[in-house]
Amino acid sequence: MSGIQESIIIRTVVRIMVPFIALFALYVIIHGASGPGGGFQGGVIFGAAIILYAMIYGIEDGKKIISDKVNRILSSTGLVLYAGTGLLCMVFGGKFLQYNAVPLFPNPAETAAILMDVVEVGIGITVLAVMVSLFFDISPPETEDDEMFPEEVEQ
Amino acid sequence: MKILALFAVLLAGGMLLYAGQDLPAFGDQNSPAYQHPMTTRFIEESENETGVYNIVTALLANYRGYDTLGETTVIFTAGMAVILLLRRREL
Amino acid sequence: MVTETIELITPVLAVLVSLVASVLILASDKYPNIREGWTFLAAFTKFGLVMSMLPLILDGKIITYTIVEMLPNLPIAFKVDAFGMLFAIVASFLWIIVSSYSVGYMRSLKEHAQTRYYFCFAIALSSALGIAFSANLITLFLFYELLTISTYPLVAHIETPAAISAGRKYLTYLMIAGVSLLFGTLVVYHYTGTTEFAFGGIAGLELLPKTMLTILFVVFMIGCAKAAFMPLHAWLPAAMIAPTPVSALLHAVAVVKAGVFTAVRIILYVFGVDLMQASNLWLYMAYFVSITIILASVYAMRQNNLKKRLAYSTVSQLSYVVLGALLITPHGITGGMLHIPYHAFMKITLFMCAGALIVTANKENISEMNGIARQMPITMLAFTVGALGMIGMPPVGGYITKWFLLLGAAELDNMILIAVLLVSAVLNAAYFFPVIYVAFFKKPDHELEYKEAPLTMLVPIVITALISILIGVWPDAPGMFLDIVNIAVANVTGGV
Amino acid sequence: MTGFEIIINNLPVLTVVIPLIAGFLTTITGWIDRRLCWYWVMLTMFVVVLITSSNLLTVINSGTIYYHLGGWMPPFGIEYVIDLLNGFVCLIIAFIGLMVAIYSKESVKKELPGKTIPFYSIFLLLITGLMGMTITGDIFNFYVFLEISSLTAYALIAMGDRGDGLVASFNYLIMGTVAASFILLGIGYLYAVTGTLNMADMQNILPDIYGSKVVLAALAFFMAGFSIKIGLFPLHAWLPDAYTHAPSTASALIAGLMTKVGAYAMIRFMFSVFTPAFVIDMTRTAEILTWAAALAIIMGSVFAIAQSDIKRMLAYSSISQIGYILLGVGLVNVIGMQGGLLHILNHAFMKCALFLVAGAIFYRTGIRNIYQFQGLGKKMPVTTLVFLIAALSMIGVPGTVGFTSKWYLALGSIEAGQWIFVLVILASSLLNVAYFWRIFDNIWFGNPHEKEHIKRDEAPLTMLVPMVILAFLCIFFGFFAYYPLHYILEPLSNTLLGIMP
Amino acid sequence: MIWILDISLLLFLVICAVAAITIKDLLSAVVILSAYSLIMAIVWVEMQAVDVAFTEAAVGAGVTTVLFIAALARTDGRSED
Amino acid sequence: MTGIMDIVYAEYNYWIYVALMMIGFYAMIAKKNLVKKVIGANIFQTAIFLFYISLSDITGGTAPIIVHGDHAAEVIYTNPVPHVLILTAIVVAVSTTAVALALIIRIYDEYGSLDEDVILAARRNLQPEFSEYARQKEVDT
After folding, report:
1. Residue B24 domain-assigned (yes or no)
2. Is residue E80 part of a domain?
3. Total of domains in chain B
4. What count of Cα atoms within 13 Å lies in the side-chain half-sphere of residue C458?
5. Average pLDDT per block of 10 residues along chain C, 496 residues long
6. Model-level pTM?
7. Which chains touch D (3 or more CB pairs under 8 A)?
8. Which of B32, B34, B70 sits opposite D145 (nearest CB)?
9. Is F43–E36 a contact, with Cβ atoms under 8 angstroms apart?
């Protein structure tokens, strides 16, 4: 991989492309309501952008964008957003995930559409975080001291 | 092992082919799956009820939103499982 | 005959006493004296509780108590009738005797794991009493299994590979028996909807087809393998590896008596006299146990180890009890039932003597016992009493039961059975007299000093020997075994 | 609407959503302080136990609960249906989950150092998956939760013995994927011919098309899939390795619950997706099932006798025990069915207790070979006593819950006229004695002289408490099996078999 | 004549599947699997399942392949069968 | 000619799906290499997805995204339900693959091989304390 990583052209192209891919991912998430796409696909594409960056610039650099800590928070946040929406519906007297129970707009369909967007964003965040974390974990460690399983000591 | 595997595979394949004879023809508009009120309602009412054009999205995030919550949980679980398997430090 | 039923918690208490004691024994692991104190306390309390019920039973009453209805129509319940009382008295009284004897034996030999020993002993006694008081097959099965499990550590007590393998054998036989018993119970429950013992047999069983009935009977008899019928007897000699008080308890009181008790219960209280007679099952079974009576005596003659010889003698004698019940005439049943306490007292005397020989003289084989009576005269006298009883010589108790059995057989005009009884008496003599001869009349190999067993052992031996004589001399003392047996027999045969 | 009302109205979904949310909040909790995780899981499981008991009580008092997720009426949305069967199974899951959660504190600290947070997260997600599978009335939703529970189980098993745990987990993963794919196929086939995913709706549509080969194939794929999932005898190859090499906590949880939920699913699909008439008369599935179960009962016990690793032995015994459940179900009479269903409860208690004991022994001594157990009776008296009680229950001694279920199974077999199954049940009891007795021999007998020096060294309190509770319940339900039988299992068996009481 | 396209795509699927499981070099196998997924996505577009096709292209051909390659980088890439 | 073609047209994706499924299933069971097993699992699952999507297809149908305009009433949409199910199932498949790959990496670290036979042999030889046979032997001696 080192050959590719050192190619200035590729590094530059990737640097330029990554934000655009991310933007496209956001578009896919929001566009899910009216065309193909949705939270899941968007999340995967966003994740792919970061994975691409990490492949070229190295995992350590990738972790500067999304550190383990951020990753952990993000992956939970997405689900909290989703399940929270469900619970919110319950608070307004509906069933779990019964969007139209929330009195956000007079038209229940409109409320549903908005909350579905929230849910899609939630999915997107979780998927993004988990995809990146999967890649970081599965790809080979870069430094020698990061050896996989030394004897572990309980603090 | 290979022979056993072949046998199992042929058994499963045979079952599928056997069942295939009674399967509704593909592309048939009169198939039970398409004629069931569920499908009909999704196609006709989803826009009014959920406010989105994409029926798949409407199903995914609204009618069967709970499945999707489960699906997201599966992803989260996979991430957690890989962390459990491959990380040596606490999260 | 009308029997009055009263509800009383005493039988439950009687069973619970030793269970509670077992916990206390475990708790006082570090203090042997307190530990043995609990044993004695429990033994006396238990005996007292059992005896307190005796007047009611002699009045012809029946005591019942339902603990819990486990499943519909499947309660864990106690019912004390005359026959159960008989076994309960024997078991609870002999526990006192054996406890005293155990203390002497175990301390003399400095045995290990004594706490476990007393613990299991107490549980075994609870189970024996539970069997005696069971109101139905399922309760009986529960305590039957508990008895098996709790005596296993006693059999395997010394923990040598040989002991453990003997224990395994013991367990294998008795577990198969247990499963068989359960199978029978299941069938009875399925066809009649109840498992409760009734004086004339469980109603509804007579409707079964003949083959089914026969199979059921065979299954039940396999279930009574604790009674050591001949093909299922192998566990009993193997279990001789246990410490002698255990052998005494196993062979005279708890386990084998539980086996024959169960067999009699099943023959008379599940199938009932009428059904046994109608189906002719009694005759086949009577011939079958006759084989055991004769064959076991022959085996006994060939044993040099005293405990083994006694074990085979037990196998033979137990079949008397079953034979008695199978004779289905009042006299025969009287003889069979009466043999339970009589054999218990005589056999426990014999075993305790054998144990005393081991502890004091360190002798197990008959061939080593030349002139041992000079060393231990009291023990050997007690032994002689027991042996005479076994053979059936007055004034020791044994002759009474044999008399009743012979009467029963004669009433049925069955020459084969009469012959069996007579031949077996001769065989009994043939294997007991040599022991007595060797002990009293052979010259010892070397000089022997007078040295009896410790008092805790000797006193029980003397007591049981005396009782063996007493029940022979004055069998119809009020409230003694014959009275109780008469009530039981009246119950099962529908009045005198 | 008050908060209380909101909670009461939504109890069915909270059964699943609470462990779910708690599961991914565990990462946050653990971030604050790692030790909080355990309390967090305990709290969650406790709440779940309360919810499931409340659900069950509601079902008993006022009948089946229907809950429409998202407010969409079935078949349009996903429906939760709690009847006696899954109310009962859910309570078992929650209860065993709580017990294992209590137990896990010390065990995880020792066996999985540095992995506390993901472990507890996965733990709660496993409970979520099992709950979701059990409670749902929608077959695709079932599949989703099946996958949640499977993935978590793979991860947990892989955490066990170095190397062996990984291979076991991988094999399980492959077999599990095959099973899940079969189930997915079955769902697809049923969807193709009915057009619905709701179980009740499907049951209404299916009788008209029972002649269809597709329906038959769907049934075959479901049966094959579930048989792999529960490790029915010839398809059990993954199970012993997986149970043996998993960490103690995971073994107890997975052995206590996974196969039970699999059996539940099998029952659910047989009787609530298809109809009794179809599985009993038209395809004779039930009969085939009883024979497979009888084979499993015997073979599982026989293999168990040959093992020297305690966990492996227990795993084989699980194969045998699952046979009891299926035997009872396959007998298709009310009594046998009650026995089979009671055995779900029964086996969850016993097997969980036994695995917890195995874990406790491993925790203190590092030994799993039963021939090295000498003197344990003196070292860990309470643990071994629990082991004795659970084993007696396994054998089926009266006064333990194992007896009751075997009694019903045997009666059911007689009623079905299948005497051979009575013999199978009795024979397997003997085999159970054989393989448990070897252990008792080693625990309490042997090496009498060395034993004098053994010091008492009992497992920590958090490990003892759940074991003792489970042992107590084994005995309690031995005497009072009447309550679950009368209030739950009898009406349930009648309903499942379509008999009006 | 759209079915000719369909059939050739589907046959190509089978070829890819067979190749993926027979080829000994694992990296090649994974790349072929990726191709398989991509063709599958095209087939689905053909069947008007655009959302699914999109997902399969992103996940099956994208993420799965990346994960496979990453994993292969940590193991040896040869297979005996 | 058209008759045969009709049959082929009506059923061809079904045959293909069965073939793919069998290929994947075979690889899962019979292949010794762990990665191959996972590849097989992917093929198997994707084949099932193909089946679902085939179910949803309607001849002359259009993607289930509501069309507005003049001809809106005439538009036939394909069945959206299987699409949703398969979206979920794809995610499940990738999750399973990820976990399987993580396991493979760990197994390779432990045994240095991905071949089932080699791993089995290694489990027997390298770690006698975990082998049943050795355990028994240890007890006997």
Report:
1. no
2. no
3. 1
4. 12
5. 77 89 86 87 92 88 86 86 90 88 83 84 90 91 89 85 86 90 91 87 85 91 85 84 81 82 91 86 88 90 88 89 88 91 90 87 84 86 91 85 90 88 90 89 79 85 91 81 86 69
6. 0.91
7. A, B, C, F
8. B70
9. yes
